[in-house]
Amino acid sequence: MVKFLVSCRACQRPIMLVGRISDPELAELREHLRTAHPAMQLPRSPGVEETLRHFRVEPEPGPPDAG
Question: Can you give the pTM of this predicted structure?
Answer without folding.
Answer: 0.87
